[in-house]
Design goal:
This protein is mainly alpha-helical. Helix content is 72%, strand content 6%.
Length: 188
C-alpha cells in the first residue's frame, strides 16, 4: 500500500486515524493515550482534507468555466498551494502519530523482551555449569531466574489470550516436576 508501481503514496490508515481521532489505544489490555499534539494535528489534517475535497470540486468547476490561459495558470498555482498545504499537514501528523505508535509498540513488547533477557541469563548459567561438568539443579540464582521466566510467560499467556483462555496461574513447580520425570525416564 505504501508504494504503488514504484511510486510513494499516502497510506490510507494515516488519514483514517486522523479522521477517527481516537484519543487512546488498547494494546495487551493496557490503555495508551495519544498526546494532545497528535490528536490536534490529526484533526487539523482531516479538516484540511475536507477543505481539499471542497477546493478540488470548486477548482474543477472554475477550470471548466474559464477561457483565458492566465486564469487557468493562476488556478493551477492555487491548486498546487492547496496540495502542498495538505501534504505538509499529512507529513506533520504522520511523523507524530507513527512515533507514538512506535513507543506504544516498544512498551507493549516489554514482556517478550523481558522473557528473552531472562532466558539468556538461564542459558548462560547452564552453559557455564556444563563447561565445568555440572548440571544446574540446586542453584538459587538459576532457580530464581527460572521462576521469573515462568511468571513472565504467565503474563504473556494471559495477555495473548484475553478471552479467559490464557492461564496465568502456573507455578515454577510444574517445571521442576517435569524435569524430575525426564531425569527418571531418560539417561541423558
Amino acid at each position: 500500500m505504501l508504494y504503488k508501481e514504484g511510486k510513494l503514496c499516502y497510506l490510507t490508515e494515516i488519514l483514517d486515524s486522523a479522521q477517527e481521532a481516537f484519543p487512546y489505544l488498547y494494546v495487551n489490555g493496557e490503555k495508551y493515550v495519544f498526546s494532545k499534539q497528535v490528536i490536534d494535528t490529526g484533526k487539523k489534517l482531516f479538516k484540511n482534507f475536507c477543505q481539499l475535497l471542497y477546493d478540488t470540486k470548486e477548482s474543477y468547476q472554475r477550470i471548466c468555466e474559464e477561457q483565458s490561459y492566465q486564469a487557468i495558470v493562476e488556478l493551477v498555482n492555487e491548486i498546487r498551494g492547496i496540495l502542498e498545504e495538505f501534504d505538509e499537514n499529512w507529513v506533520e501528523y504522520e511523523k507524530l502519530y507513527v512515533v507514538e505508535l512506535m513507543l506504544i509498540e516498544q512498551d507493549a513488547r516489554r514482556f517478550i523482551q523481558e522473557a528473552i533477557d531472562v532466558e539468556r541469563e538461564i542459558t548462560s548459567a547452564e552453559v557455564r555449569e556444563r563447561a565445568k561438568g555440572k548440571i544446574m539443579v540446586e542453584c538459587s540464582d538459576y532457580n530464581k531466574n527460572r521462576k521469573r521466566l515462568v511468571e513472565i510467560l504467565n503474563k504473556i499467556n494471559a495477555v495473548a489470550n484475553p478471552d479467559g483462555k490464557g492461564r496465568d496461574d502456573l507455578q515454577v513447580e510444574i517445571l521442576y516436576q517435569a524435569e524430575g520425570i525426564c531425569r527418571r525416564i531418560s539417561s541423558s
